[in-house]
Amino acid sequence: MLKKLSYLFILVGVVFLTYGGYQFYYSSVMESKRLEEISKEVSDEVITTIDDVTIFNYDAIREGDSIGVFYIPRLDREIPIIEGTDEEELAQGVGHYTGTGFPGENKQIVLSGHRDTVFRQFGELEGR
In whole angstroms, what is the distance from residue 93 CA to residue 105 CA? Predict the structure, then answer.
């Protein structure tokens, strides 16, 4: 009986490791796909001021849309910014809280991401 219980624990462990590996792989693939998608639309030019934000229709942005690129110079890493903060969006990049500001709107911009997906390299940088 103890031997069967040991095999059961090993099997459960393998299932958990497989599921975790799949989630990690899926997140990486979706992040790369979204980054490639948004890179076609985003300019390399750094904008320091926005004179007229009325030229862009922020109301047209829907949850799940790729809306920008979050660049971390110290890591030399680009992460796609996805509208929304549900699990699906956060698995694909950094989530932008719906209802918070966009560049040039004079509002607070709030972004979110899971430490074990898009921000996993911060822990590696700090030696964690």
Answer: 23
Please state, rounded to an integer, the average pLDDT across all residues of the chain. Answer: 78
Q: Give the closest residue to 42 by CA, choosing from 86, 87, 93.
A: 93
Q: What pTM did the predictor assign?
A: 0.62
Q: What is the mean pLDDT of residues 106-114?
A: 84
Residues in the chain: 128
> In whole angstroms, what is the distance from residue 26 CA to residue 37 CA?
16
Q: How far is it, in rounded angstroms, from Cα 120 to Cα 61?
A: 27
Report how far residue 117's alpha carbon sits from residue 21's, in angstroms, rounded to the nearest whole number. 12
> Pick from 113, 17, 36: which is nearest to 121 by CA?
113
For the chain, domain boundaries: 2-125
Fold of 2-125: Sortase; Chain: A; (2.40.260)
Q: CA-CA distance, 55 to 17, in Å (whole number)?
A: 48
